[in-house]
Give the backbone structure.
Amino acid sequence: MQLLKYLQAQGIGSRKQCQWLIDNGCITLNGKICDNAKDTLTPSEIRSLKIDGEELTVIPLPYFYILLNKPANYETSHKPRDYPSVFSLFPAHMRNIEMQAVGRLDADTTGVLLITNDGQFNHRATSPKHKLPKIYRVTLKHPADETLCRTLKQGVLLHDDNETVSATEAVLESPTTLIMTITEGKYHQVKRMVAAAGNRVERLHREKFGIWDTQDMASGEWKFIEV
Ligand code: URA
């Protein structure tokens, strides 16, 4: 891949801006100044990218997959309305490239959120056909018993929907802590299911999406993953 194209794919700037940075000796790759825009490189071999001595996050190409421990009060949207966007949690140059969330979490929901530029992966991971389990830790408003778990597993009818949806697992860890697994990703699904079963969600945390969890990650922390 040509150096100029590589820098553009890293979100560094326009063709003209990248050309200027190269011509002026501002780009260092793997510790070596690269000042010829026509030089070619292998993206997977780039471990370090500096601009004017400042280290930047190297984005794996052509596809990247990110695991984010989403904090509360961030919107899963490029055009947020009430809170900052989850995409604002990433370095500036990453915001110049295509980034799609794999499904959405509500602004007040925390936990596992995958982000990618791989549309096919996104489609596969969110398609109900693939039944990827999503595990949620739900803090309930009212103390519950086994009846709630049974109702959620048997299926509930959501308002404005004429199909029932069910949890594949529903277990109470305490009277107000429910661990619930679903395989679809309908709008506000957990909150609406719990409401349809006669309770209310006070707090919602996604513990797992497929095989991915954020157990050892601080709120707001993110990392590239292999899929
Ligand atoms: N279900 C919800 O109700 N909200 C989320 O953020 C995710 C699942």
